[in-house]
UniProtKB/TrEMBL annotation:
The gene is cph2_5. It comes from Amantichitinum ursilacus. This is Phytochrome-like protein cph2. Residues 24-278 form the EAL domain.
Length: 287
């Protein structure tokens, strides 16, 4: 077929592939530069109480890349590549350190805001993660319960023996574990019973449909009840409407996160958010 299609077609195809490969090389080079030049930033999205107070329970740290040429890039366009290029451990370390430093700064200012950090599969597979988390918490003088590590279901399912070992050690450290995007993977109930995370974050795809689709609503309600029976807290992701919020609150979902409450924003905007949404939480030691 290639022969029939002629030289032109082949050339066109090959040029296209080269362009693709070149783009990937560019991205790899740019990601390295971004690390060296400190071009990554964290935005923080409020996670609020699932009751009428909607008090701030925590924030989730979400990475963005302030590329000098392309502007602000979202994680969807570079995290998978960073994993492939073997850069995710370094980026992940930067994320953990930056989020914990920010949490410590807020704490000094009298704002006790626990932070949740996303951990990639590659990071979770490395033995070094526990020591890294421990040293970062110590560096910033943070009590471990101020940090939650978010793992996706597929990461946590990857190698059960390793997962259980890691989770046990992290639990001993005192940091919390959340299962992110819950419902999109294929974890079994037996596995959940062994794993016993502190939190389940129900994936946005279910929340999106709870108003109109009785089966999505049934699944969300069942997950909330199951989690509660296991003493696991539930966070609903991607809450965008009042109706979704009210349905989740009626089910006793502990925490809600989504554009209805706030989009992710830079750390500097947290104080303003708190001022307009709820009074500052009481300082820890009466500072
Ligand atoms: P995630 O951990 O499930 O984070 C939630 C994503 O949903 C965020 O997208 C957030 O901005 C978005 N979101 C929140 N509320 C709503 C809503 O009401 N509606 C809609 N449509 N979207 C909402 P973002 O920031 O683009 O992050 C995408 C994913 O990238 C994250 O999903 C996480 O898996 C990954 N990610 C983000 N930051 C990091 C990081 O520092 N390290 C690693 N390894 N992955 C990260
Ligand atoms: Mg997350
Ligand atoms: Mg999530
Ligand atoms: Mg998600």
């Amino acid at each position: 077929y290639a022969k029939q299609a002629g030289k032109g077609t082949f050339c066109y195809y090959s040029t296209d592939m080269e362009a693709g490969a070149a783009r990937l090389l560019d991205l790899q080079r740019d990601l390295r530069r971004a690390l060296a030049n400190d071009e990554f930033v964290l935005h923080y999205q409020p996670i609020v109480a699932g009751n009428h107070t909607h008090h701030l329970n925590a924030v989730e740290a979400l990475i963005r890349w302030q590329d000098p040429h392309r502007g602000l890039l979202m994680p969807g366009v570079f995290i998978a590549e960073a994993e492939r290029f073997g850069l995710i451990s370094e980026i992940g370390e930067w994320v953990l350190d930056t989020a914990c430093r920010q949490c410590a700064i807020w704490r000094e200012q009298g704002m006790l805001i626990p932070v949740a950090v996303n951990v990639s599969a590659v990071q979770f597979r490395s033995q070094g993660l526990v020591v890294l988390v421990e040293s970062i918490m110590r560096r910033h003088g943070l009590p471990p319960h101020m940090l939650t590590l978010e793992l996706t279901e597929s990461v946590a399912m990857d190698d059960m023996t390793h997962t259980l070992m890691m989770v046990t050690r992290l639990r001993e450290l005192g940091v919390k574990i959340a299962i992110d995007d819950f419902g999109t993977g294929h974890s079994s109930l037996a596995w959940l019973r062994q794993f016993m995370p502190h939190e389940l974050k129900i994936d946005r795809s279910f929340i999106e449909d709870i108003e109109d689709d009785p089966s999505a609503r049934a699944i969300v309600n069942a997950v909330i009840q199951l989690a509660h029976a296991l003493k696991i807290e539930v966070v609903a992701e991607g809450v965008e409407t009042i109706a979704q919020r009210d349905l989740l609150q009626a089910q006793g979902c502990e925490s809600l996160q989504g554009y209805h409450f706030a989009r992710p924003f830079p750390a500097t905007e947290l104080e303003g958010y708190l001022r307009s949404h709820n009074p500052l939480p009481a300082p820890e030691n009466g500072i």
